[in-house]
Write the structure tokens for this entry.
Amino acid sequence: MYKIIKKKQLCPVVYLMEVEAPLIARKNKPGQFVVLRVNEKGERIPLTIVNSNEKLGSITLIFQVAGKTTKLLSELNEGDFIANIVGPLGKPTEIEHYGTVALIGGGVGAAEIYPEAKAFKAAGNYVIGIVGARTSSLIILENELSQVCDEFYIATDDGSKGYHGFVSDVLKQLIDKGVKIDLVYAVGPTIMMKVISNLTKPYGIKTLVSLNPIMLDATGMCGVCRVKVGGEIKFACVDGPEFDGHLVDFDLLIARQRTYLNEEKKILELYEKMEKS
């Protein structure tokens, strides 16, 4: 059992939780994730580790309410317990000195680029942060990212804050202005990562994406998280979650992610009706 020691609602659909998990906190590195079950009968969901504190023996998770399980998780409070947390999982990001690194986070992906920004900055890189959301109320970790990034940009679909448009537009403007970018790291909606990868490929800019396929056991045994990269089948849980964005078959990934969308929506609606009755 893993005790929740801090809970904070970052925006209408996104929550932060700091959880006691000393062994995971001790071993975690940027790019890794955990798989948790809210209760013993619950489904397993992967969440990126946003921060870890060895001294306190805690890890920080940020998640968006998207289905019944994340809804249940959001309803837990400080002092409550999460049944199981397994991790850290996945290959850590290869942090090294590239020169200029552009980190791009779409939606809750902004949380996932935060540990990357700190690590790439510590490695001596010039760090450009670009985050995007549908509207200003959905922007998260603005203060934290702006403090660690050398340059920081916001893009909103409705123009309510920052650039009126998409994160890819901001990146394109920087490239067109002649900013030399040595590495792009993107995480967020799959379609966003596809657009970013298509944008950087003609320029020959190395681009890493952190994929978020459907995942079950997270040990490479079940194959649910399989993705096609460079014509080969990879498992995001053990081979990733980061891959070369120029080699990922995004269309196949998007199709697989849609497999259970209707079922997830129906289960969440049923749960919310039961809550109100």
Remarks:
- The radius of gyration is 18 Å.
